[in-house]
Amino acid sequence: MNIDSSALIECVPNFSEGRDMQIIRQITDEIESVEGVRLLDVDPGKATNRTVVTFVGHPDAVIEAAFLAIKRASELIDMSKHKGEHPRMGATDVCPLIPISGISMEETARYAHKLAKRVGESLHIPVYTYEEAATRPERKNLATIRAGEYEGLEAKLKYPDWQPDYGPATFNAKAGATVIGARDFLVAYNVNLNTKSVRRANSVAFDVREQGRVKTDPATGKPILNAQGETERIPGTCKSVKAIGWYIEEYGIAQISMNLTNIRETPLHVAFDACCKSADARGLRVTGSELVGLVPKSVLTDAGKYFLKKQRRSVGVSEPELIQIAVKSLGLDELAPFDPQKKVIEYLLEDKTVRPLVQKTLVGFADETASESPAPGGGSISAYVGALGVSLGAMVANLSAHKQGWDDRIEYFSEMAEKAQQIKDRLLNLVDDDTAAFNKIMAVFQMPKNTGDEKKARKAAMDTATKGAIDVPLEVMRTAAASLEIIRAMAENGNPNSISDAGVGALCVRAAIEGAALNVRINCSGFGDKEFVEKALNEAKEISSRSADSVKKILEIVEKQIA
Fold it and tell me: Which tens digits make up the pLDDT trace of 32-50?
């Protein structure tokens, strides 16, 4: 398979050991031994006696790491002695591959088969493939494959319909069997109840899960069959949700354990509210919830917006605040402290060295600017001043959304605040982009220039770096100018008590635009690509003129209201 070098897949193997950290560590050491793989999360559960491991990397590196981990687990875990609350059938119970970027689901499924074949043939473990890698429709569902669990595996392997896709059709008493597949992102999620009753937890699970419950005859209690002799079911309320109830001795509570297999169809917050509604109808109470493994950032930010909307509040707040609202509303910190930096995929993959300036304190940023280093300079400061200006626009929008008597205008102000937050985040990124562009020019001066080829390479690198140094402040101008429409709307329609804040915001944005224009002009000076220079200078002039008129009108509105 010819796969892009930037392709990323995630692997989330579940190992049937959650108590002995030495065993878990030996398995994860195998994963970390593979170059090009990053271990993101290790989530052991004592009651389930199961550990969910998450790692990402290039597909070739990921399946190598997965094979080594499966091999080590088969050596260290004895399934004949395993006890745990979670359904399982092998030392490595399930090993899904999830496409993250630069690779299709079809290609990911081919990698799943490549891994499954190697595991079956090299380790003599029966392997089934599921979800998008399933070899037949009835094996698409993991629960169907795992029915009977480890204890029923020996008998199951004797049936022709349950011959494994790879590996021997003989019972491996120590390693059991493994299920390998390709699937969309799955969220493993548990909702906590104020009861110890598994039966009552199951009642809620049956209300919520897509499969629902078996339809029974009220008189006899027996299942009702349709014309084809199949058991009829009453579907649950949430699509793409699998759920069961169980008791967790470690916490002393029953939980609804869910797999959300399509978070676009049923987001986390929708599943949570469905559990709350069902529990309340049954005299139970949801006390909190628990995320197993990692989630994309959008899972929490979408939940934050959902709960803010339910409160009739603006959703145009910062990302950390959205996540805090989600954590508190879902009760994700009930059983243990919840650290988004350790549970959100994007945060774990984030290179903390890429944005060194915006991560500084106000004092640290000012000190860095005031030092003898030429960067950060006027370009980075322009981007930061613009971010401050549009932040004031967001503040006025949020204050207006919460003003007493303006409830009918919440959605309007919320939308404005959300747009302002997006512009603010883009300008903050440009703070570091500007300094990075300057550093690229400085790096060119270190290139050799002794031969004709070296001089040619040096000139080409300088041209590219100079274009970058012009493009970044131009983007600052474009982005900052886009915020003036929001600031003007807030000056005209926003909370009159914050009118001066709108004025200050406009002045900051004007300073950002004019400061960035100076950087465009100085970087264009002496640059040999006349066509590129003319186009850049014309755009900068147009943005500057247009924004000057906008700021003037905003200040007139502000002055009139203050007067």
Answer: 999 989 999 999 988 889 9
